[in-house]
Amino acid sequence: MANTKASIAGSVRVPTPANEPVRDYAPGSPEAVRLRAEIDRIGGQVRELPHVINGERHFTGRQEAVVSPHEHARVLGHITLAEEKQVRAAVDASLAARHDWSMTPWWERAAIFLRAADLVTGKYRDELNATTMLGQSKTYHQAEVDAACELADFFRYNAHSAAAIYDQQPTSDPGQWNIMDHRGLEGFVLAITPFNFTAIAGNLPSTPALMGNTVVWKPSEKSALSSDVVMRVFEEAGLPPGVINLVHGDGQSVADQALASEHLAGVSFTGSTAVFRSLWKTTARHLDSYRAYPRLVGETGGKNAIVAHPSADPEALLVALVRSAFEYQGQKCSAASRAYIPRSLWSRIEDRFADTVAGLRVGDVAEHETFVGAVIDAASCTRLEQAITEAKSLDSHRLLVGGTVRRETGWFVDPTVFVTDDPTAFTMTREFFGPLLTVHVYEDGDWTNILSLADNTSAYALTCSIFATERAAVSEALSVLRDAAGMTYVNDKPTGALMGRQSFGGGRASGTNDKTGSPLALQRWVSGRYIKENMNPDLAWGYPYMGRTGS
Ligand SMILES: NC(=O)c1ccc[n+]([C@@H]2O[C@H](COP(=O)([O-])OP(=O)(O)OC[C@H]3O[C@@H](n4cnc5c(N)ncnc54)[C@H](O)[C@@H]3O)[C@@H](O)[C@H]2O)c1
Ligand SMILES: N[C@@H](CCC=O)C(=O)O
């Protein structure tokens, strides 16, 4: 049979990536008109969202409806929940595809994802944005920065970083040649992705695949509509069958079965801290049966703080509070959900901040005026309503704005702000993943204590923002909060990390801090093999001081 693998002579340079420019979607602009038409087209359909195993589509078994969070009567499609046989088939397909894929030249693997990037920003841009808006309730801007720009950035920057990894080679002494073979892991990788970012859903299975691994991908059932498009992008870009196998279904039952395989090589997870801990414990239980130690990569929850010094610029602080707490309904893991503000500054912004938040339009994301869509599902709505009710009942909490929940049409939670004099209250420690911000107003002289409090109050360490114009205050905060976040912003909001500029990840209960989209993250999916070749083998066994004795 002819050798079908391409071969090239020459060292390969991956194109230097640049961040995909964000389109504006101003009302009436051609791009907005096109996207609106796509929203109407997809909103009028009921799609079958099948498993894709070894390139084949399967749609049998118990079905679950996928609905629009801001219009929950609108059914957008159905998934079927994977049963044992489908999970087994996905694992088997991954293992069967592994050898060929891992032996495919890395630049060919990279070429597939570079092609995927162009499909994302070209042919599929509107469909990705529309499905993300309809299925995950993102506004025009929030869908664009996620499903078009960040997804393409992941593919382009990862390909570039892969080249840097493959370029790492050892030195060699005369008469020897040392080579590092950056292999994929032995076995398959299980990727489990969250609902809130289409880009993360696409990145988690594709990063291990880029590095020569094969993958079972379990997307969130709540982002199934956009994940289906991402899978089609992979296929159209040329990804061979079996390299990424998509199974929809209940997270726990898919994970329980996949994690029990002796061939599990790694877990690529983003989602809540509780689920990641459960995955870790399950792998620990199976440890004796694995052929190799699985790599566990997890980016999880946050309780992100904005800490303002009395010298902070009030306008910059106000804007950061509004955007980071309420963009995408506070459903970014990076969203600000607690703030520490000195009394002198708070008295200057309180009323304007309350008015601004009260004026944020909540509703259908296809309308340009909407700033806040719906939270993802009924359970999220209930969780937030319970937290709001509990906070309202506490003497230590004063409701500044919001506090209402409406369920008739969509799962709407109005942007809500509490002011508390109890900085250790549950609202300052627990992640609620919604448009709920709690502000602790401190006496101006308490700055140093407040920094320690912000550091120690929550178990998480994902993002934080420091607002100050005095350099000494910035330095002190950077020092005290050094372990309090993997992403620290000075005079900027704690959301919106940009590929190639700030790679995302946090420590403590927020994850393994592997910095998504950076060479560090790619490195986790590589298992090195050193090859030492001796050009001039020794022909004598004795040490020099013995006199070199031949055999
Ligand atoms: N740190 C980050 O980079 C980052 C990014 C995005 C989201 N998040 C976090 O994700 C959470 C919100 O996303 P979510 O609601 O989709 O999270 P989630 O943990 O509920 O679900 C994430 C994925 O895990 C699956 N799952 C649920 N229960 C499972 C179980 N018992 N076993 C195995 N899999 C299971 C889900 O089906 C989904 O695919 C928040 O906590 C947020 O902070 C973190
Ligand atoms: N990378 C995103 C957050 C991802 C989590 O949801 C940000 O920086 O805001």
From TrEMBL:
Keyword Oxidoreductase carried by entry: yes
One MF term in the entry's GO annotations: L-glutamate gamma-semialdehyde dehydrogenase activity
Active site: 299
One Pfam family cited in the UniProt record for this chain: Aldedh
Highest rank taxon of the organism: Bacteria
SUPFAM superfamilies cross-referenced by the UniProt entry: ALDH-like
Pathway noted in the entry: Amino-acid degradation; L-proline degradation into L-glutamate; L-glutamate from L-proline: step 2/2
Keywords: NAD, Oxidoreductase, Proline metabolism
EC category: oxidoreductase
Catalyzed reaction equations: L-glutamate 5-semialdehyde + NAD(+) + H2O = L-glutamate + NADH + 2 H(+)
GO cellular component: cytoplasmic side of plasma membrane
Span list, region Disordered: 1-27
EC number: 1.2.1.88
GO biological process annotation, one example: L-proline catabolic process to L-glutamate
Chain ranges of the Aldehyde dehydrogenase domain: 63-525
Membership in a protein family: Belongs to the aldehyde dehydrogenase family.
Name this protein carries in UniProt: L-glutamate gamma-semialdehyde dehydrogenase
UniProt source species: Streptomyces chartreusis
Gene name, Swiss-Prot/TrEMBL: pruA
